[in-house]
Design goal:
There is one protein chain. This protein is of the alpha+beta class. Among the domains are: 52 residues; 39 residues, no CATH class; 103 residues, Band 7 domain (Tetrahydropterin Synthase, Chain A, 2-Layer Sandwich); 67 residues, no CATH class. The protein has a three-stranded antiparallel beta sheet. A hairpin with a 6-residue loop joins strand 9 and strand 10. Helix 1 packs across helix 2. The longest helix is centred in the last third of the chain and has 70 residues. It is rod-shaped, with a radius of gyration of 66 Å. HflC and HflK may interact to form a multimeric complex. Belongs to the band 7/mec-2 family. HflK subfamily. InterPro entries: Band7/mec-2_domain (IPR050710), Band_7 (IPR001107), Band_7/SPFH_dom_sf (IPR036013), HflK (IPR010201), Membrane_HflK_N (IPR020980), Stomatin_HflK_fam (IPR001972). It is found in: Membrane. This is Protein HflK.
Length: 396
């Protein structure tokens, strides 16, 4: 049987969990539910007992009971509020974070990772991640030094170096970073020609932007440290891309022609220098040869002069024979004008040489052979002169 079912003895239901024994039921019936006000009054009595207060009396003092109920609710609300404040007074920082503590709105300290306590309402903690590498993307169309337009995509990677300045000095440090990066990029692009930006000068441009941007951030006191700055892409605007490609192809053709010309020059110039050096060496050798020959001829003439002084006639004939031998060496036929006659004497030297058993060819003749030929020619001339003189005498 349920505790609130009828059939009670009228002295209270023993199964009533509240133990009211039908108090508050003026009719004395056992089938009535317990009075809610009575339940709240008992609960408030227990709470007041915890704080050293007595109950509000029996049901005859209804006003006092109502006041006690309202005070109990306030006490409960105060307990719950104090519990919430105590719970919110504890906070935890992980290994990547540092806590910037503000006390009554002013900077107080920097907290390290771990479990910490703060004064409720008075203290405020701003957690700042100092190890995470953050990124910012910038894409701008800019004017170069040579008055060309390029589109540049910039990637900036950074982290927080000083949590205090990052959290307190600048209201929105990351927004300030983007604005400073745009300013630094425009300054460097405006000081650089277009070709290096599009080809081989991207790394140098990124380094220059990083240095200038870090200087801006330090002066703004943002507490940000740059880790890397990259030029992701640099290209001309889409509207002029076709004309730009034509210009680039023309420049490539120019570079190719220059390289071909330099290669040709590198091949020709050393060869020409070699030929010039060879001619200089040949001229030097010719000079030395001529000077040596002249010196030898001079020495030979001096020696010959001394011999001539000793025997003029013999030396004269010897010189004559040597001269004739030298002339006859380069000629195979000789015409001799006969003194006192009208005809020319013809001497076939090639036939004479062929008739000599000791000589086989002109290149193999020795000095003795040449002397023999000269003697034969002289004897032939003398004999013909003698015969010519005898013919003249007979005619007279």
């Amino acid at each position: 049987m349920a505790w609130n079912e009828p059939g009670g003895s009228g002295k209270g239901n023993p199964k009533d969990p509240w133990g009211n024994n039908n108090r508050g039921n003026k009719n004395g019936g056992g089938n009535q539910p317990p009075d809610i006000d009575e339940v709240l009054k008992q609960l408030m009595d227990k709470v007041n007992g915890l704080f050293g207060k007595k109950g509000g009396g029996n049901g005859n003092n209804q006003g006092a009971g109502g006041n006690d109920g309202l005070g109990g609710l306030l006490v409960i609300a105060a307990i719950i509020g104090v519990g919430l404040l105590a719970f919110n007074s504890f906070y935890t920082l992980d290994e990547q974070e540092r806590g910037v503590v503000l006390r009554t709105g002013q900077f107080s300290s920097i907290e390290n990772p771990g479990l910490h306590w703060k004064i409720p309402v008075v203290d405020q903690v701003i957690p700042v991640n100092i190890t995470k590498v953050r990124e910012a993307e910038i894409k701008e169309r800019m004017l170069t030094e040579d008055e060309n337009i390029v589109e540049v995509e910039l990637n900036v990677q950074y982290r927080v170096q000083d949590p205090q300045t990052f959290a307190l000095r600048v209201e929105q440090p990351e927004v300030s970073l983007v604005s400073a990066a745009e300013s630094a990029l425009r300054h460097e692009v405006g000081s650089t020609a277009m070709d290096p930006i599009l080809t081989t000068g991207r790394a140098a441009l990124a380094d220059a932007v990083k240095i200038r941007l870090q200087d801006y951030l330090d002066r703004y006191q943002t507490g940000i440290q740059l880790t890397n700055v990259n030029i992701k892409d640099a290209r001309p605007p889409q509207q002029v891309k076709e004309s730009f490609d034509d210009v680039q192809r023309a420049k490539q053709d120019k570079e190719r022609f220059i390289n071909d010309a330099e290669a040709y020059a590198n091949a020709i110039v050393p060869e020409a220098r070699g030929r010039a050096q060879r001619q200089l060496e040949e001229a030097s050798a010719y000079k030395e040869r001529i000077v040596a020959r002249a010196q030898g001829e001079a020495a030979r003439f001096e020696n010959l002069l001394s011999e001539y002084k000793k025997a003029p006639q013999v030396t004269r004939e010897r010189l004559y024979i040597e001269a004739v031998s030298e002339v006859y060496t380069n000629s195979s036929k000789v015409l001799v004008d006969v003194e006192g006659g009208n005809n020319m004497m013809y001497l076939p030297l090639d036939k004479i040489i062929q008739g000599m058993p000791s000589s086989q060819s002109k290149d193999q003749m020795s000095n003795s052979d040449m002397s023999t030929i000269a003697d034969q020619v002289i004897n032939e001339i003398r004999s013909r002169q003698n015969s010519s003189n005898s013919v003249r005498r007979e005619g007279r």
